[in-house]
Specification:
kinase; binds cytidine-5'-monophosphate; 8 strands; Cytidylate_kin; EC 2.7.4.25; globular; cytoplasm; three-stranded antiparallel β-sheet
Length: 222
């Protein structure tokens, strides 16, 4: 099959990364989790004791660090300046701050440029919040994946059971609603469905059903 790009956007906990990874596996494409890049910058800002409200200092930190995304056995591994931070970027501390860091225009510009470069040779499944609208406006397949807040909280709740990120379902629901609000309300590249994206509501769909719908969209375009 000729290579093309797939953009998968949507709110927190909609299942984007699981779905994107499976679609990439089926097509032999490369999966890129852009949320991990914003998390990596947030981790570095916290690690270096930079004030997250000091946008210039945050932008300098982002510009001075090296982020690498490497395919691993259980998904994508994330390295910052050569150190594996794949699990460090998933902590509550990072999750609580990431939407604030992701709202800084200079940080977005840096990461969006990197993301565009990664997708230049096609064959990429990229998930995030602004992929179909800003990063890859020419992506051949665009999906806006969503689900009810309750369902998204339940899925995340189950995912983090037994890990350091475990919390209550109510806390999870609150966190997801708060991140939705910040991501949808920010000035730069807010979370919004691209006009030409296909909306998929996964509230009552299984993972294989969602994956199949996206593969069908891919078949339709060839
Ligand atoms: O996808 P994930 O939930 O890991 O993303 C973490 C945060 O990174 C999101 O809540 C959002 O604030 C930010 N993000 C973004 N643009 C993207 C991907 C993620 O602003 N393309």
């Amino acid at each position: 099959m000729t290579k093309f790009n797939i953009a998968i956007d949507g709110p927190a906990g909609a299942g984007k990364s699981t779905i994107a990874r499976k679609v990439a596996g089926e097509l032999g494409f490369v999966y890129v989790d852009t949320g991990a890049m914003y998390r990596a910058v947030t981790w570095k800002v916290l690690q270096d004791g930079v004030n997250p409200l000091d946008t210039e200092a945050v932008a300098r930190t982002a510009a001075g660090m090296k982020i690498e995304l490497v395919p691993g056995p259980d998904g994508q591994l994330v390295f910052v300046d050569g150190r594996d931070v794949s699990s460090d970027i998933r902590t509550k501390l990072v999750t609580d701050r990431v939407s604030q860091i992701a709202a800084i225009a200079e940080v977005r510009k840096l990461l969006v440029d990197k993301q565009k470069q990664m997708a230049a040779s096609k064959g990429i499944v990229m998930d995030g919040r602004d992929i179909g609208t800003h990063v890859l406006p020419d992506a051949e397949v665009k999906v806006f994946l969503t689900a009810s807040v309750r369902k998204r909280a339940e899925r995340r709740f189950q995912e983090v059971q037994g890990t350091a990120m475990a919390t209550t379902l109510e806390e999870m629901e609150k966190d997801i609603a708060r991140r939705d609000m910040l991501d949808e309300g920010r000035e730069v590249s807010p979370l919004v469905q691209a006009a030409d994206a296909v909306m998929l509501d996964s509230t009552d769909l299984t993972i294989p059903e969602v994956v199949e719908s996206i593969l069908e969209m891919c078949r339709m375009r060839t």
